[in-house]
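Question: what's this shape?

___
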Amino acid sequence: MNVSRRAFIQSLIAVPAAAVITQNTALRALMAPPGAGTRKLVMVDLKGGNDGLNMIVPFGVDGGTYYSEFRPTIGVPANQVLPIAADVGMHPSMTALKSHFDAGRLSIVQGVSYPDPSFSHDFAQKIWQTGDPTGQSLEGWLGRLLAECPTPDSPAAAALTSSLTKMLEGTPGFVPAFTSLNNFKFPSDKKHGSDKSNREAAFAAISDGLVAEGGNLGSMATTGRGILDLIDLFDTVPEFEHIGVYPDSSLTKPLQLVARLMNADIGMQYFHVTYGGFDHHSNQNENDKHANKLLAISDGVSALYDDLAAIGLADDTIVVVFSEFGRTVYENGSAGTDHGSTNPVLVFGNAVAGGLTTPHPSMDPVDLDDDGELPMQADLRDVLGTVAQSWLSADPAVVFPGHSFSSLPIFA
């Protein structure tokens, strides 16, 4: 390459449509917080509002009668639940994660929400991604965390989506958003493929010449030269033979990309992965709709673990599975559930304490709130703040300003 990656990072101000990148005048890039070494974090975001009551099933809570009364047709039968405690179990499709729970690699934080929860998808997603219950923050919680970090030579975070997510906004560096490494290819004329290297060299020469001249045009040209550096960086990522057995799901591709990027060791440590389709207002169990989603989560995360274990990165990686809100306690008249509030959060990895971090909320109708929702057991800022503090060595007061933080026993 004609310029260093550090020079590229300092000069980058725009990108092609295939790669959305944030920017800041400081243009500091990202790396692990002090003392965190090479620790990695994968945030798996279940968009649409996952039904946590049918994922972590309270089959015996408060005697077990309320759950079956609230959900007479869509509830998971007690004899099919995979028990993980005397009164709580996992959905029968989640056998892979059940085995990890038994091995002490899965912490389940039950009843997670925040004060005055929103039932709007967009607003609730913004709250979860920023950690600001008012929804007014312009920065993501992970962006605030990474803003405190020194400058590496290449991107340390990525949104494996079609566009940048709120979680990583506010990062004083850059964050590529992409769904495939093929997004980063220098365009060429299909009729003259052999001329690709000449075209790229010409583009680089023009950009370098304009940069040398300075001025506004030179500043714009640094973008083009920087894009070539990003293309070169991703061109170094080798193919990866997956050890894990991934499910037939749209979640598989981004999880496999996580494994491939980690294996390439190009400095990427933080990933935001999204998986949609959880807004089950009707016919939730038809054709095993929700069960198949939970199967994809369970088998997909387990397969990622197998890949990372094979390349020696399982000890360095934590996966957090969450959704912008849960579903109603009561099933509706269309054999589905509507927008609810509290929901479990899964924290997975060799470093976690394992087990049920918080008790399941009471199912007794007298304990439900004015909206008929379960009482909150843990604030989302305490869950994510514990991840930030205990796993990434960050200060929760910086990541979640104004919140009175309480650490949770998620980690060993």
Notes: The chain is about 30% helix and 10% strand. Residues 5-186+232-399 form a domain with the Alkaline Phosphatase, subunit A fold (CATH 3.40.720). The radius of gyration is 23 Å. Residues 40 and 269 are 5 Å apart (CA to CA).
